[in-house]
Amino acid sequence: MNNVAKPVWNLKPATMALLSGACLLPLGGVVAWQIFDQDRRQIERVEPVGGLATNETAPASAKPAKPAAKLEMADADVAAEPVPAAEADGSSASPGASPGYASPKPGLEQRADSAGRSPVDLTEAYPERKSQVGRGRVKSVFTPGTPGQSRVRGDREKYPEFNSNGVKSVLQQPVSTFSIDVDTASYSRVRRALLAGQLPSKDMVRVEELVNYFEYDYVLPENREQPFKANITVTPTPWNQHTNLLHIGIKGFDLPPAAQPKANLVFLLDVSGSMNSADKLPLLIKSFRLLLNKLNPDDTVSIVTYAGAAGVVLEPTKASSKAKIFAALENLQAGGSTAGGAGIERAYKLAEENFVKDGVNRVMLATDGDFNVGISEPERLKNFIAEKRKSGVFLSVFGFGTGNTNDTLMQTLAQNGNGQAAYIDTLSEAQKVMVEEAGGTLFPIAKDVKLQLEFDPSKIAEYRLIGYETRALKREDFNNDKVDAGDIGAGHSVTAIYEITPVGSRAVLTDPLRYGEAKVKPADNPYGEIGFLKIRYKLPNESNSRLLSEPVINPDNSSLGPNGDGVFPPEARFASAVAAFGQKLRGNPATSDYSYKEIADLAADSRGTDAFGYRSAFVQLVRLAGSLGKN
Asked: What pLDDT, on a 0 to 100 scale, did the predictor assign at position 595?
């Protein structure tokens, strides 16, 4: 009997394997714990969506949240796929806190973003390109389709359907009446679609919003009593040598900072679960931070949020208390359903309670467009907003993100709330809307602005208004002060373009009637008068409209004809290029033979100064559309 232990290398294979596993198991456990602990500590440092980055762990009473990568909207190439927001219980929220609001933690430093201007860069991140966290897989918000077609993911995006304006006979319908429009949402949405690799659906395209996205060098009025001045130009039509374009441009009187009225602003912010995405709540917060830097110290800001219920996050606070306002914004979190109606009611109540006489009282709604709780029916919301504007509280609407866009409702609210509808898809767009155009966004100089144009049948046979289909008015609406119309803010410019067909042109489409059509005698207008323009408007605090009128003079009669070259200034040329682009995207037969390349060349040749690069960016978009389209 030999009790000497055998060497390990003499043991049987099975015994050897058992001993190896027993030795390696503790070592593996240590390694696994180190990896887990490292991941755990990294997760604890993640910045919550819409909140502030901290090194503190979540309180024990709070429900655990799924980790999300820290997002930088302006610089990242790919944005993270949205993750569900954590629902904090009462122990982690301040008493009386409203939905979507996380109490600020002590000791956190509040830092303001810079509001410096930046040029447009098409290479910056567009939030519609989203990846699954940790997988690096990119998927577009647009489902694949054939060139010229576009479908939006989930089929939850809603756009108003309408037909493009047709040609009108001057003998039968000599008068055209419409409401002005300064909304720009359509341009941003079209850009989003193109940069996602798809041509937009035609109902996403409102030509007047594309044209009015850009500022034009129009003559300014001399004083606020006449808040704008008409600029009229007649030029040849780039896509039809037998017609002409009549450009009507007006630019609002710009208010210097010292003359800006005191503002009472209520931020109505959607923090429902659908806002839990990089291109929604985080971008919303950054956008409104930019706006705060444009306000005067005596202006007041309130914040109302809505999700499962509506609540006040910030009572009226002086704009000079930026740190307090920033803290309220930075601690917003997304979660819950969408009580949009309740939020609107609460916001208007707060605005009315703090009403500033002879000042600006405005609710600024920011949402992804998903209203499914509360006053959700468009007609009821329309009536509610229309009734509230009589009190002097106006409404502007800012859209964010993709997937839930209800463009129809956003247009309805903005149009009936005497405000603007804009869509913000990048921080650069927020800079344009909230900083560079802050005066037009915040300070109205005229409301219920209507245009009416009567054509001289001895000079013009036919006309077609390009765009403004959703802004058409009846002829009798022009003199009816009870009919709502568009509004112009300080420094805003508005452009309307008619394609007109001179008498005797080969482009006339309508045959003369055999019966009942009166003979037209040449009008006595030796100065080239081709029509008569009337503009009706109200000053912000008035209920009775004022009237501006003037003849439409074509200084160069030779341009009214198939061989006339006419005067074609750069501003009109660029606006013509944008109008051509919008019509082509909508599939309008008028521009079927005018290629994307020709549009891009016309726009490139008429860019002008282009201080911030918006016109150059437009040229790139046209060329991209040409690559995606058939022509």
From this structure: 96
Distance, in Å, from the CA atom of 249 to the CA atom of 495, rounded to the nearest integer, reads 4
**How many Cβ atoms from other residues are within 10 Å of residue 380's Cβ?**
12
Task: Identify the three-state secondary structure at position 265.
Answer: strand
Residue 237 lies in a domain: yes
Distance from C-alpha of 173 to C-alpha of 253, rounded to nearest angstrom: 33
- Ranges under pLDDT 50 in the chain: 1-11, 13-99, 103-154, 373, 557-567
Q: Any idea which residue has 């109302």 for tokens? A: 304
Q: Are 534 and 451 in contact (CB under 8 A)?
A: yes
The angle formed by the CA atoms of residues 132, 138 and 139, to the nearest 5 degrees, is 100
Pairing status of strand 493-502 against strand 486-489:
unpaired
Is residue 413 classed as helix, strand or coil in its secondary structure?
Answer: helix
Taking residue 512's Cβ as centre, other Cβ atoms within 10 Å add up to 9
Query: Which residues touch 524 (CB under 8 Å, ≥6 apart)?
Result: none
The pLDDT, as a whole number, for residue 571 is 93
CB-based contact 178:451 (threshold 8 Å): yes
Distance (Å, rounded) from C-alpha 327 to C-alpha 314?
10
Note whether 223 and 206 are same-domain residues: yes
Find tokens 């765009």 and name the residue.
Answer: 467
Q: Which domain CATH number covers 317?
A: 3.40.50.410
Angle at 121 between CA 430 and CA 631, to 5 degrees: 110
pLDDT at 109 (0 to 100):
35
Rg of the chain on CA atoms, in Å: 29
Exposure string for 97-136, b = 16+ CB within 10 A, e = fewer: bbbbbbebeeeeeeeeeebeebebebeebbbbbbbeeeee
> CA torsion sign, 78 to 82 to 83 to 85?
positive
Are 383 and 483 found together in one domain?
no
CA distance 145 to 495: 33
pLDDT confidence of residue 309? 61
Q: Which residues pair with 301 in a beta bridge?
A: 265, 317
pLDDT of residue 253: 85
Model pLDDT, residue 185? 92
pLDDT of residue 131: 31
244 contacts 560 by C-beta, under 8 angstroms: yes
Q: What is the bridge-based pairing of β-strands 394-400 and 360-367?
A: parallel
Sign of CA dihedral 74, 191, 251, 356: negative
- Please check whether residues 281 and 409 belong to one and the same domain: yes
Q: At what angle do helices 281-292 and 322-330 cross, to 10 degrees?
A: 170
Half-sphere exposure of 320 (CA within 13 A, CB side): 3
The count of structural domains within the chain is: 2
Position 307 scores a pLDDT of 80
Give the angle subtended at the CA of 212 by the CAs of 623 and 529, to the nearest 5°: 110
Q: What is the pLDDT of residue 521?
A: 61
Are 427 and 73 in contact by the 8 Å Cβ rule? The answer is yes
pLDDT at residue 375 in the model: 62
Name the DSSP class of 564: -
Record the tokens describing residue 189, joined without a space. 């949405």
Q: Report the predicted TM-score, pTM, of the whole model to 2 decimal places.
A: 0.74
Kindly state the DSSP code that residue 506 receives in the 8-state scheme: T
Residues 270 and 415 in one domain: yes
pLDDT value of position 116: 40
Query: Which segments within 167-261 are labelled E, that is strand?
Result: 168-169, 175-179, 228-237, 240-252
- CA proximity to 418, closest of 383, 398, 393, 440: 393
Same domain, 393 and 489: no
Phi, psi of 107 (to 5 degrees): 85, 0
